[in-house]
Specification:
The complex is a heterodimer of chains A (116) and B (115). Chain A has no helices and 11 strands. Chain A is mostly beta strands. In chain A, the strands form 2 sheets. In chain A, strands 2, 4, 5, 6, 9, 10 and 11 form a 7-stranded mixed β-sheet that branches. A 4-stranded antiparallel β-sheet of chain A has the order 1-3-8-7, with no helix packed on it. Chain B has 115 residues and is an all-beta fold. The chains are: A mainly beta (116), B mainly beta (115). Chains A and B meet through strand 4, strand 5, strand 9 and strand 10 of A and strand 5, strand 6 and strand 11 of B.
Chain lengths: 116, 115
């Protein structure tokens, strides 16, 4: 499968624990985007990364959330000290390069995070 | 700031009937527009996109959409729906400025197909 790979598909955490969500972009894609989908809502942009750089994190909560896209390996979305309100589906998307918007983003199947 | 409105939260149509899902956007210039479909428990699949040129764009699975600048709309259509089209549909706009390429999504329209 050459698509965007996210794991785990489902993640259960207790309040106060840490959640790590991983995303491997499509082969040849160097741009990664993270979105969050709350129940019965559309997707909300969180962060846009290129290799080793955060380009736009305007959608990231100011505390407890961080993201990285290292030179080697997948992109990681990290949520520290999770709370019930973090329960959501987290989607990763990738695109090959900046192309003035004509490179559509391809989405993974998401990670469903549940907080007990 | 840009925004996307999908006024219909839930639509039910009979199999074989025609379909139109509405989408309105708010942005000062011509945006890049997309329709995605999401099946339960799955990610988003791109149906079609509009960047420029012909305002009627064709997508996968028999879908098409028409960009109307005067109405700030990008409605999705299909002449005859199939039971497999039941899903959630999201309209999205991308504003591509230097260093900024985030999609803004509507809240989605859930499509139910009845026999």
């Amino acid at each position: 499968n050459a698509g965007v790979m996210q794991n785990p598909r489902h993640l259960v955490r207790r309040r106060g624990q840490e959640a790590r969500l991983r995303c491997s972009p499509m082969k040849g894609h160097s741009h990664v985007y993270w979105y969050r989908q709350l129940p019965e809502e559309g997707l909300k942009f969180m962060v846009y990364l290129q290799k080793e750089n955060i380009i736009d994190e305007s959608g990231m909560p100011k505390e407890r959330f961080s993201a990285e896209f290292p030179k080697e390996g997948p992109s990681i979305l990290r949520i520290q000290q999770v709370v019930r309100g973090d329960s959501a589906a987290y989607f990763c998307a990738s695109s090959p390069r900046r192309g003035e918007g004509n490179q559509p983003q391809h989405f993974g199947d998401g990670t469903r995070l549940s907080i007990l | 700031a840009q925004s996307v409105t999908q006024p219909d939260i839930h639509i039910t149509v009979s199999e074989g009937a025609s379909l139109e899902l509405r989408c309105n956007y708010s942005y000062g210039a011509t945006p890049y527009l997309f329709w995605y479909v999401q099946s339960p428990g799955q990610g988003l699949q791109l149906l079609l996109k509009y960047f420029s040129g012909d305002t009627l764009v064709q997508g996968i699975k028999g879908f098409e959409a028409e960009f109307k600048r005067s109405q700030s709309s990008f409605n999705l259509r299909k002449p005859s729906v199939h039971w497999s089209d039941a899903a959630e549909y999201f309209c999205a706009v991308l504003i591509s400025n230097f260093g900024n390429e985030k999609l803004t999504f509507g809240t989605g329209t859930r499509l139910t197909i009845i026999p």
